[in-house]
Amino acid sequence: MGAPSLERDSNGATRFNGCTSIRDFEFLGKLGEGTFGEVYRARSKRDGSIVALKKILMHNERDGFPITALREIKLLKMLSHTNIMRLKEMSVERSKGEGRKKASMYMVFPYMEHDLSGLLENPAVHFTEAQIKCYLIQLLEGLRYLHGKCILHRDMKAANLLISNRGILQIADFGLARPFDEPPPQPGKGGGEAKRDYTTLVVTRWYRPPELLLQLRRYTSAIDMWGVGCVFGEMFKGKPILAGNSDLNQAQLIFGLVGTPTEENMPGWSALPGCEGVKSFGNRFGNLADVFKDLNPTAISLLTELLKLDWRKRINAMDALKHPYFSTPPLPARPGDLPSFEDSHELDRRRFRGQRAALPPAPAGGSVGMGRNGGWSANSGNRTGAEPRNNAQLPSAARGAKPNVNGNQGNQQRRPIDSWNNESQQTRSRRAGEETSQSLPSRHRDGGLPPKPPASTHQSWTASHGDKGGRDRPYGTGRYGAPDANVDSYVPSYGGGGGRSRERDHGPANPDWRGGPCHDKPYPDYSRDNPPRRRSRSPMYRDRVDRPAYRR
Amino acid sequence: MPQEIAGLKFLSNALATPEQLTSSSSSIDGVPTDLETSVRFAGAQLTQSAGILLRLSQDIIAQAIVTFTRFWLGPEGGSLRIYSAKDVSAAALYMTAKLSFQPTSPRSVLNVYTFLLSKEASPLWFVNPRGLPTEPVPEHYHLTEGGYQAQRHILLQIESVILRTLGFNTHVALPHTITLTYLQTLGVASPAVARRAFEHLNSSLLSPQLLYLTHQPNALAVASIYLAARENGVKLVDGEWWEVFDVDREDLGFLVVAMQSMEGFARAESEKWKGRMLPLDTEEVDAEIERRRMLEAGE
């Protein structure tokens, strides 16, 4: 097929075939796990490529296959852009033998070595300005494409930006994404105007724009642009720039940075429901120029455009790409010219994490105080007790890892972070949790993630989930897991494992690096979804791969 | 999903391969081709009826029928001796609605299917050949709590089977909207033509020739317009206007004949199954095959 064909993708593979078998992949190790599912690194036996396999957990799904996963898959299959993560295919694992009692489904992605959050966490990695510009351009290109296709990402954050060793940045995690009904953004017009309501229960708190914190329901693609601003600042600072420990605190941090809202800088703000009932934020000017005083004026100019309180005036992706920042020296690096880093796995990440936990100010916790949610500070190490519904594994990982990890760190080469990082997965665990708590903040990041606000801080979820907001998540079921799986287990427990000393090596070589069960079990049990099979037929028959279904 | 999402890709469908069209899982399992055609036809009608009772919009129903039809396709598809057509119909509808702006609950779906599959109360000729009772007896179509639990389990299982069998390709592009666009482009203002074109498009969902699996939406749209205009005596522009919409004369001719034959096919089907129930689950399919075997052996 020489000419572009609808039935073939760019690699000549059939676009419409059934799922491939998981036996086409050689498992190399686990990259992470959590309520969203488990992520493995694997090698394709067909072409030798390295992929990330994300297993979709479906236990306790009241409404069948998780709508969020289904929607994410459908969306990803529709998108095609260099800077958008590509879903290669779906893969099914069937247990051997007749009956096929268990089957698991995996999403197959090209393997990316790092994520931005992880790279920034790596103390050995320092971005040059040319590098920052290179990543930012790619991020904006991806968003221009996405918004041009009328899709809101709704979970913009450093952890969802994957970076390959060839310097390519990709936007990942479309679990919260959805199409929007309005026309795509126009040059000079920001995100345009929204005509309908959407749920405000989106975006990880640290990257959540002020209008969402104030409960604007008619938001636009400008919410993603705020996240770009946060990521932009984060690339300079090496850590999230607005790490609130509650929604209210988040709003206060934002207003401290860019000034409190007035009818001039944020028209209509006083008509919004407000943040946790608070509608008065005093009268302050921002200190953005001070906080970022090391930046050159064009950088500050762009940052100011992105972090505009007025969502109507906030710069859109296509305009941001034309900002003088990208045409003034140092010019953006080309992706291929960026330094590459040895890729690493989650456990390496955790090593940094442990090390980082010893560093002075933790993202959210300590200095600001954990407030009502208490006990989430990375440094305080008291999360286990304070937040029992979250898996004790994380705290034990964070705390337990510290001494060892630090101890080992010294002579250890620094590794940047793996792409299938905790962070990306956090969103999922967060989402899974969201189903019960109806809250959206991400958790567990580096020990300092914002805690989930109590459900009461948001307007009724049930009220919104029927018709309007509910379209987002019609049934409010778990993303990849059920509400009761509100357990962020992707950060494995160091406490339980005796394998800690082996973590020098990558996970794949040492699948038992953690004491937990079923790690190296690439074919885990999965008990669902096989219909009563009344008649026997050779299972191999159905296990054939590369079937040409739906190809002309 | 808005159609503009990725241009052409989302105006088009995955089409069946010749291999898939020549052999099916059911035929490998010994289901006669004509029986398979009948069951598929009845299953598509069942889906349509259920969608109407669930007050789903026609685009959801149509997508569900296409998904239902795709499921049985080819040697890697589902077999009627393993999966019950009624279950696949329900799961396809449930899943399609879930992805749409009109999600519906398993209970609503199962209530409707219980009613439609009731051998006493169903309004469907292939389920209840005696026709609607004069006095409805609610017990005949009441879904018990136990029945609900069991059916729900099956519904969700089959949903997964469908997703897996179709490789998670839940996208279905329909010809309806572009049909209206084409009509406007052609300057046809007659609502009768538009209505008739839609009727053809909706009947084609039930086609034994699997038109939605073998032709792209633009071809279906053009054929339905051509036929509707001719039936209404509306003159379209001169010249080979279908070429503008990337449809060649050969495809157009095939589709027009296929669409025209739908009525005769539906009549023949109801004639063929007159007074009998059409097998919509695996046991009934087995029984029908056995009955045919006995008939043959008796001769």
Automatic annotation (TrEMBL), chain A:
CDD domains: STKc_BUR1. Its main location: nucleus. Keywords: ATP-binding, Kinase, Nucleotide-binding, Nucleus, Serine/threonine-protein kinase, Transferase. Residues 25-326 form the Protein kinase domain. ATP binds at K54. It catalyses: L-threonyl-[protein] + ATP = O-phospho-L-threonyl-[protein] + ADP + H(+); L-seryl-[protein] + ATP = O-phospho-L-seryl-[protein] + ADP + H(+). Coiled coil: none annotated. InterPro entries: CDK, Kinase-like_dom_sf, Prot_kinase_dom, Protein_kinase_ATP_BS, Ser/Thr_kinase_AS. It is found in: Nucleus. Residues 356-552 are annotated as: Disordered. Residues 465-474, 517-532, 540-552 have a biased composition (Basic and acidic residues). It comes from the Eukaryota. Belongs to the protein kinase superfamily. CMGC Ser/Thr protein kinase family. CDC2/CDKX subfamily. This is Kinase-like domain-containing protein.
Automatic annotation (TrEMBL), chain B:
It comes from the Eukaryota. Gene3D superfamilies: Cyclin-like. InterPro entries: Cyclin-like_sf, Cyclin/Ssn8. This is Cyclin-like protein. It comes from Aspergillus pseudoustus.
